[in-house]
Amino acid sequence: MRVMGVDPGLTRCGLSVVETGRGRQLTALDVDVVRTPADQSVPRRLLMISEHVDHWLDTHQPDVMAIERVFSQQNVSTVMGTAQAGGVIALAAAKRGIDVHFHTPSEVKAAVTGNGRAGKPQVTEMVTKILALQAKPTPPDAADALALAICHCWRAPMLARMAAAEAMAAEQRKRFAAKVKAAT
């Protein structure tokens, strides 16, 4: 499975592609940070992000995309920019039929470090070890994008089992309702 991890942001947007191997073995295929100038209009900056993401999707052809879920932050304008960037990115994936999954920062930190409150240095250190990278990914947005891809690779089997269980439960409810209706 090839996963594109995205740490959305209007100023800096982390992009990564990670591929799963046997077991929990992962390989980093690419990582980058898209930067947009703060003096540009928001629509222009979103267009720049969109163009980069389109290129990445065409080049790497991921099976799934993992995007950091916008979490409440103190600065409303930062949250808005992050949400707008995440929306543009999710739309690009949806247009290509690529499944999009959102993960909270604490889910990502817990998956990668075992601690949902880990700091950026600890996440970067673990990403470097997990992917056997020669150097730490910089800036932190690059490490965060890789961490998102790792998180999804490791959580995907559980998410698939949960979706199958939910589908089975829905089918059983449907059959039960049909039996009840037939009995009355």
TrEMBL record:
The free-text note explaining how the cofactor binds reads: Binds 2 Mg(2+) ion per subunit.
Q: Where in the cell is it found?
A: Cytoplasm
The entry's keywords? Cytoplasm, DNA damage, DNA recombination, DNA repair, DNA-binding, Endonuclease, Hydrolase, Magnesium, Metal-binding, Nuclease
Annotated active site residues, numbered on this chain, are D7, E68, D141
Instruction: Please provide, alphabetically and separated by semicolons, the GO molecular function terms listed in this UniProt record.
Output: crossover junction DNA endonuclease activity; DNA binding; magnesium ion binding
Q: Which cofactor does it need?
A: Mg(2+)
Instruction: List the Gene3D superfamilies hit by this protein, alphabetically.
Output: Ribonuclease H-like superfamily/Ribonuclease H
Give me the residues that bind Mg(2+) 2, please: E68
The record's Gene Ontology biological-process terms are: DNA recombination; DNA repair
Q: Indicate which residues the UniProt annotation says bind Mg(2+) 1.
A: D7, D141
| Keyword Cytoplasm tagged | yes
Would you indicate the residue range of the signal peptide? none
Primary subcellular site in the record, as a coarse category: cytoplasm
Name the reaction it catalyses: Endonucleolytic cleavage at a junction such as a reciprocal single-stranded crossover between two homologous DNA duplexes (Holliday junction)
Superkingdom in the source lineage: Bacteria
Give me the segments passing through the membrane.
none
Protein family membership = Belongs to the RuvC family.
Q: Return the NCBIfam families for the record.
A: ruvC (TIGR00228)
Function recorded in the entry: The RuvA-RuvB-RuvC complex processes Holliday junction (HJ) DNA during genetic recombination and DNA repair. Endonuclease that resolves HJ intermediates. Cleaves cruciform DNA by making single-stranded nicks across the HJ at symmetrical positions within the homologous arms, yielding a 5'-phosphate and a 3'-hydroxyl group; requires a central core of homology in the junction. The consensus cleavage sequence is 5'-(A/T)TT(C/G)-3'. Cleavage occurs on the 3'-side of the TT dinucleotide at the point of strand exchange.
Oligomeric state and interaction partners are given as:
Homodimer which binds Holliday junction (HJ) DNA. The HJ becomes 2-fold symmetrical on binding to RuvC with unstacked arms; it has a different conformation from HJ DNA in complex with RuvA. In the full resolvosome a probable DNA-RuvA(4)-RuvB(12)-RuvC(2) complex forms which resolves the HJ.
Give the protein's recorded name: Crossover junction endodeoxyribonuclease RuvC
Origin species: Mycobacterium fragae
